[in-house]
Structure formats: C-alpha cells, structure tokens
Specification:
The complex is a heterodimer of chains A (about 80) and B (about 400).
Chain A (H helix, E strand, L loop, with lengths): L2 E6 L6 H12 L5 E6 L2 H13 L3 E8 L2 E7 L3
Chain B lengths: L5 E10 L3 H12 L4 E5 L12 E2 L9 E2 H14 L3 E5 L3 E3 L5 E4 L3 E10 L3 E3 L7 H4 L5 E2 L2 H4 L7 E5 L3 H10 L5 E5 L11 H9 L3 E4 L2 E8 L3 E8 L5 E5 L2 E4 L3 E3 L29 E3 L11 H29 L4 E6 L4 H16 L6 E5 L5 H6 L6 E6 L2 E7 L4 H5 L3
Helix pairs in contact in B: 1-2, 1-7, 5-6
Classes of the chains: A alpha+beta (about 80), B alpha/beta (about 400).
Chain lengths: ~80, ~400
C-alpha cells in the first residue's frame, strides 16, 4: 500500500481530473493517490468523480486556495 | 493489513458544513475552542444549490446560496476553525471523550455537534441527475417561483408540501401540472388543501402517473410521465419540475446511536442537546417545523454556545469540584433558604477555624454543574473524597454530621 503524489498545480480543468483518472488506474487497490491542485473547479470535479467510482476521498486545504485531494483506491 | 490511522484531538468536532455547522463553528471558534469541521461534499451544504436567497436577513439585494455560504465559511476560518473534506465513517459518542472516524484519521473530541442536514428525496427517473437543482429540477418553490413567472411547471407529489407549494406557484406560473400516482381525487395532503387545489383553475392534475424520464439540452424542457394503468407515455413541456416527494435526513450512520423519530430526524431539546451528554444537533436533520438558512443559523448558534458552556463546566467540575477532598455547597442564589444556609455555612467555617470549609457552586444561571453532580434539590452539600462525590446531603445539616466525614 504505497502513497503517490500527483502535482497538478497551475493546471485548469479538466487536466487534473484526466491525470488523476490515468494515474489511479495504474495503482493497486489500497494505494493512496494525493492530487495537489489550486483550481477550485478541480476541487469539485476530482472528488466527485472519485466518490462516484466508490473510492475513499478526503480533501485538505493545505494553504489558501491550495488543496490536496487524497484518494484511496478501493477496487 | 489495516493502515495505521492518525489520531487528532479537538475540543469540538462539527459534522456537516452547511449553515448550521458553519454557525456552530463560528461560535466555537470565537470562544477559542480548538474546532474541526468535517464536510463530505461542498462546504455550504444544501443552501449552495439555491440560486437566490432573498429572505436571509442582512442582504436586502438578495444573495446567491453559494456566495452567502462562502461568507459563512470565511467567517468560521477567521476564528480558526479547521476544515476537513471527507466522509464520516462512524462515531462513538458516549462518555467524556467522543471519537469520529474518517478513512484516514480518528478524531477525539470533548463535544460533537451534529449538523448533518438532509437531502430531498428524488424520483430516480431516467436522466434525473443531469437536471438536478439549477438545471430545471427544483425542490423549493419559495426559491424558484419568481423565475417561473408566466411559465408552465410540473409538480410531482400530492402531500401537503406538494399541494401547498403548488398553489403558491399558481401566483407566478401560467399553468401548474401536478403528477399524482393515485387514482383520480386521491391525494396525500390535508382535506382543505385538496379542495382548494381541485378548484384552482391554473392547476391541472395528471392522475395515476409517475415520472419516467427527463428530457432537455442544457436545461430541462420536457418531463415524460408514465400512466401506471395503461403504461402510456405522456410528455409534458415545462420550464421547471418541482419534486415534493419527501426529504431524507443524512442520519443513517447515527441510527441506534442518538435518539431520532421514525423518519430519522434527530430529537433535541431547546438547547440542541441530544440524548447523549456533550452531543448537540443543529439544522435540517433535527425534527423541526421550518427548514431555512435562518433557522439553521439559530440552531447552530445555540449548539455552539452550549458546546462552549459544556466544556467550561466540565473543566470547572474536574478542576474545582473533584480535584480535592472537600465539601461543596450547591445553591441557587435566587432562593432565600439557600441564602440563609449560606450564612450558617460561613459561620461554621469561622467557628471551626476552617477545619470545615466549603467550595460554593451557585447554579442560579445554569444547572450544568449540579446536573453533572447528580443534584436536583437546593441547597445541597456534596462530599468529595478521592476525586469522587461520596455523599450528598440535601436540606438541613448539622456540624456533627459533617465532622463525621473528616
């Protein structure tokens, strides 16, 4: 169960979502993907997608306008 | 192998980041309590789905739901409330330390404020998800009536909310269709509303129908109803579809933990206290008469204030009442008998050169401390030994009686 970081700083939608989908597909069940974003639209669509897919999701506001979306791959 | 979870400690954990939770956060944060707010989706809650909020005081020009909630959020942050965007998996609320589990962290808190809100029940018809909230399917006539002035709308449902909101909509819309699953003439609402609605010339009832499908481009334009008897489809062109088929509180994870009614709404008293000490509940998930931002704010303020009070009383209880062997005189300053006895006690302290001495707890303003001591009659004397209350003397007492404990 490894942890991976995905830097999407400065990237607008839908790039963070596309990158997160691609990266998560490569991981094993139980792995954690941390997507770093600073576009508020990605703060909405990345967690929404991950939850819809049935993964565990947590959002951390690490700084003003910077977020980490933590996704645990469930299947 | 289970992942090792982090453990974090807070004074207060608030579950839910809508109007009620954010207001509780503002009060707790301002009282300098170490406060965490957990929200599973978007901070702001159900209000963010409403475009215009025109009846929240202080905004004569109106506000957008999202804009208003951003201000709440900003204000809570200003007072140092921390935010975490995740789902609560489970809670343990009994005892002095409560735990709230998320998938990565275990939070421990002295107080938990539940502000979990609810969601409107939906029809689950085809394409419904695509048009929810601002795309043509609404759950609030008060919110969206004005935008439908001169237009045609459809209502789904026949309960009190459906029919009363429907009649309200006839003041704006040119036509209000009502889809009802029952046979002609049968409605779930009260008799008065039913008769008024049947006589309303702007209302047209479509009996024995349920929604089969929603159609539109960017915005809804047609609701296709299915006749339950014939199976025929009946497309109705409308600008907005209002669904009034009930409301579901997000309390599934609290079942068998806090007291709730049959529908799953949490039962609280006027201080927003649940049946569990140190656990408060505020907002739409409570059994209450009116669900609005303004009422959620009131609940949140009460819960936040009482949380602060509860923590202060716990601290006082532990540091002043139980910390040493002593007599505690528990009295109500507004009762004359208590005042007389207070003089006797002070005289006894002088006579015995302080061998018998008392701490005094006045419960005139709040019964929090006495409740915690299990004392309901005043005046009473609690005898504290080895960090515990070993005896309570209510009413009259003598010096000899007290000396036995020394």
């Amino acid at each position: 169960m490894a942890e991976y970081e995905l830097d999407c700083m400065g990237e607008a939608c839908p790039i963070p979502l596309v990158k997160a989908e691609k990266k998560l597909a490569e991981l094993n069940v139980g792995d954690i993907l941390i997507v770093q974003i600073d576009h508020s639209c990605a703060m909405k669509n990345v967690p929404e997608w991950a939850r819809k897919e049935g993964h565990n999701v947590e959002i951390d506001e690490v700084d003003d306008g910077e977020w980490e979306v933590v996704i645990e791959k469930m299947h | 192998m289970p992942r090792e979870k982090k453990v974090e400690e807070y004074d207060v954990v608030i579950i839910g980041g809508g109007a009620a939770g954010l207001t509780a956060g503002i009060y707790c944060g301002r009282a300098r309590l170490n406060t965490l707010l957990i929200e599973k989706a978007l901070v702001g809650g159900l209000a963010t789905y409403t475009n215009d909020i025109e009846n929240y005081p202080g905004f004569p020009e109106g506000a957008t739901g999202l804009g208003l909630m951003e201000l709440f959020h900003k204000q809570a942050k200003k007072f140092g409330v921390k935010f975490k965007g995740t789902d609560v998996k489970s809670v343990e609320l009994e005892g002095p330390v409560k735990t709230v589990e998320t998938f990565r962290t275990t939070y421990k808190a002295k107080v938990v404020v539940l502000a979990v809100g609810g969601r409107p029940r939906i029809t689950r018809a085809e394409n419904e998800e695509e048009f929810l909230f601002d795309k043509g399917i609404s759950f609030c006539a008060t919110c969206d009536a004005a935008a439908n002035t001169g237009k045609e709308v459809l209502i789904v449902g026949s309960g009190d909310a459906a029919i009363e909101e429907g009649m309200f909509l006839t003041k704006f819309a040119s036509k209000v269709y009502v889809s009802i699953m029952h046979d002609e003439g049968t409605m779930d609402c009260n008799e008065i509303a039913r008769n008024e609605a049947l006589e309303n010339p702007k209302m047209e009832f479509v009996w024995n129908t349920v929604v089969k499908r929603f159609e539109g481009d960017d915005h809804l334009h047609t609701v296709v109803l299915e006749d339950l008897k014939t199976g025929n489809e009946n497309p109705i062109k409308v600008d907005t579809c209002f669904e009034f088929i009930g409301y579901v509180p997000n309390t599934e994870f609290l079942r068998d933990i806090v007291d709730m009614n049959k529908q799953g709404y949490i039962l609280v008293n006027d201080k927003m206290e649940t049946n569990i000490e140190g656990v408060y509940s505020a907002g739409d998930a409570n059994e209450k008469f009116l669900k609005q931002v303004a009422t959620a704010v009131g609940d949140g303020a009460m819960a936040g204030y009482c949380a602060e009070r509860y923590i202060a009383e716990t601290d006082k209880y532990e540091s002043q009442i139980l910390a040493r062997d002593q007599f505690v005189y528990v009295y109500d300053a507004s009762c004359p008998n208590c005042q007389n006895k207070l003089k006797e006690i002070e005289a006894m302290e002088t006579e015995t050169d302080g061998r018998i001495s008392f701490s005094k707890a006045d419960v005139y303003k709040s019964r929090g401390i006495s409740n915690r001591m299990g004392i309901t009659e005043f005046p009473s004397i609690a005898v504290v030994r080895y960090g515990k209350i070993i005896d309570v003397i209510t009413g009259d007492f003598t010096r000899q009686q007290l000396e036995r404990y020394l």
